[in-house]
Write a structure and sequence with these properties.
Helix content is 81%, strand content 0%. The chain is mainly alpha-helical and 238 residues long. The chain has one domain. The longest helix is centred in the C-terminal third of the chain and has 26 residues. It is globular and about 50 Å long. The chain starts with a helix and ends with a helix. The relative contact order is 0.20. It is a multi-pass membrane protein. This is Probable membrane transporter protein. Pfam families: TauE (PF01925).
Length: 238
């Protein structure tokens, strides 16, 4: 059974964190559905959080000068509140209805972007709300990325800056989530031990994602972004 979990973990980590390093988010969206073939939701969240810690440590250092710091500061308090609430829900309830709701919301947003004549513009209050919702779903499912995409996209337009800022936002979430998961008991030493075994797979995924990013232009980046959001929404629903 442990070998099966390791194989699924390796596949999930490679797929998820190749995408994560390529576009700056969606690692958990890709990895989580794969992990659920082998482990329960709290364990899957624990594994994804550990690899986000590994990923964020390197990518924030690499992309620091491209990160929009004002956006990170603006989202900090909202994210902190959201993550804590999300982990409470993860620990003490069965949040499958919320998972489906998030999936439907993401698909509606993609539809709006593709069919809407005007780009969605958020007020300061709405931006704060999206930050808290992103933190909440990051705490419950480790899948708050699409909500942060909507928020960050309102203030950051260039693909390079957007990607770097998303990396910074998710690094912030990871720093909040790891201690909260440990305190709740959802994250333990065995999770770290299993993660270290598949660390070489993670490093390869990071390397390939970083290597391919410069080959993508702005139009392709937007298409990839919407495609990933669509697949993420469907994965959360089904």
């Amino acid at each position: 059974m442990e070998l099966y979990v390791l194989i699924i973990l390796a596949i999930a980590v490679f797929c998820g964190f190749f995408i994560q390093s390529l576009v700056g988010f969606a690692g958990s969206m890709v990895a989580l559905p794969i992990l659920l073939f082998a482990v329960k939701l709290p364990d899957a969240i624990a594994y994804v959080s550990i690899f986000y810690l590994f990923s964020s440590s390197y990518l924030v250092y690499r992309e620091w000068r491209n990160i929009d710091k004002d956006t990170i500061v603006r989202l900090t308090l909202a994210s902190l509140i959201g993550v804590v609430l999300g982990i409470v829900v993860l620990t003490y309830s069965k949040p499958s209805i919320l998972q489906t709701g998030l999936g439907v919301f993401i698909l509606l947003y993609v539809g709006y972007v593709l069919l809407g004549k005007k780009e969605l513009v958020l007020s300061k209050k709405a931006n704060w709300t999206f930050g808290m919702m992103g933190g909440f779903f990051s705490g419950v499912f480790s899948t708050g990325g699409p909500l942060y995409v909507i928020s960050v996209k309102n203030t950051v337009k260039e693909a390079k800056t957007f990607r770097a800022t998303m990396i910074g936002v998710l690094a912030l979430i990871t720093l909040i989530r790891i201690p909260a998961l440990s305190i709740s008991g959802a994250l333990n030493l065995q999770h770290f031990q299993m993660s270290l075994v598949v660390l070489p797979v993670f490093i390869l995924a990071q390397f390939l994602g970083i290597k391919f990013f410069p080959k993508i232009n702005e139009v392709q980046f937007k298409r990839i972004l919407l495609c990933i959001l669509s697949l993420s929404g469907l994965a959360l629903i089904f």
